């Protein structure tokens, strides 16, 4: 049986990630996987004649064995799963990991250290924040560090209240080393690499926001600590992000569902996509044995 899969991107994301898409297609050929690039906008999902249905440009399409979903849309993964299509990542991982509040609540079950924080509905925010200044405000569903704000004083807080359109808000302390974090890349149950991200001019260390990246050698203690999180979930490929306490200990921050590999590729020769597709191929083979 030749394994068939879809690689799904939105139009906008596809424009920004063509080299990454081509990397997927090239590695799939090496592994004898028939991988088809699909635009999310071309797919229609719903229920017809009491059965879950998927169409491409309003026409029936042969279903694949799996789909790599590179959009943030848990509903799409859930629908594909109901059609019997294995998704990477799963709808559960997509739903939890694309909401920072849900992620923290889930990881907190493992007694993993993290900074102090509060969760709010936007309408319930008052002129008195629950934590002392300075503090961090995040959109729980934001990505790439773009909806993360440093609030230094009451003036900043009032300005945020007046301007924000977030439905929910995550408020955290700043009791960490600023402009520095760690991204750990994971495929399945294995750590494949870790990258230290640092910024000299921003409290955020995101690579896309101008941060610099260097390879990070995890200690045995850190590996055991991180593996507790990995064993709790059924990941395809994710990035687990950590902050650093003032004493250098790791503090859980978030899990990136639709993770790229720019930073890992910039500091290593690890074939992330090849490893990911090999993992998927082995997973699908087990399902059809």
Automatic annotation (TrEMBL):
Entry-linked InterPro entries: ATP-grasp (IPR011761), ATP-grasp_RimK-type (IPR013651)
One Gene Ontology term of the molecular function aspect: ligase activity, forming carbon-nitrogen bonds
Cross-referenced Pfam families: RimK
Gene3D superfamilies per record: 3.40.50.20, ATP-grasp fold, B domain
GO cellular component terms, semicolon-separated: cytoplasm
PROSITE patterns referenced in this protein's UniProt entry, alphabetically: ATP_GRASP (PS50975)
Protein name per Swiss-Prot or TrEMBL: Alpha-L-glutamate ligase
Organism: Cerasibacillus quisquiliarum
């Amino acid at each position: 049986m030749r394994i068939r899969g879809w690689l799904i991107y939105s139009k906008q994301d596809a424009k920004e990630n063509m080299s990454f898409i081509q990397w997927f297609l090239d590695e799939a050929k090496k592994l004898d996987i028939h991988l088809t690039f699909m635009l999310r906008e071309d797919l229609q999902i719903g229920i017809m004649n009491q059965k879950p249905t998927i169409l491409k440009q309003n026409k029936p399409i042969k279903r694949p064995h799996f789909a790599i979903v590179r959009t943030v849309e848990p509903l799409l993964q859930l629908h594909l799963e109901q059609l019997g299509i294995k998704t990477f990542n799963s709808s559960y991982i997509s739903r939890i990991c694309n909401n920072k509040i849900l992620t923290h609540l889930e990881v907190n079950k493992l007694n993993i250290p993290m900074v102090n924080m509060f969760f709010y509905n936007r309408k319930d925010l008052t002129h008195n924040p629950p934590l002392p200044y300075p503090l961090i405000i995040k959109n729980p569903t934001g990505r790439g560090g773009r909806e993360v704000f440093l609030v230094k004083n009451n003036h900043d807080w009032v300005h945020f209240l007046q301007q924000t359109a977030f439905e929910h808000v995550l408020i955290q302390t700043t009791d960490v080393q600023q402009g520095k974090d760690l991204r750990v890349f994971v495929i399945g149950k294995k750590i494949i690499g870790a990258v230290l991200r640092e910024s000299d001019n921003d409290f955020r260390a995101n690579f896309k926001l101008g941060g610099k990246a260097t390879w990070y050698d995890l200690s045995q203690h850190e590996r055991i600590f991180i593996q507790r999180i990995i064993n709790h979930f059924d990941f395809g490929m994710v990035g687990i992000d950590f902050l650093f306490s003032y004493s250098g200990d790791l503090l859980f921050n978030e899990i990136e569902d639709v993770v790229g590999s720019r930073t890992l590729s910039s500091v290593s020769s690890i074939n992330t996509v090849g490893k990911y597709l090999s993992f998927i191929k082995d997973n699908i083979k087990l399902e059809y044995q």
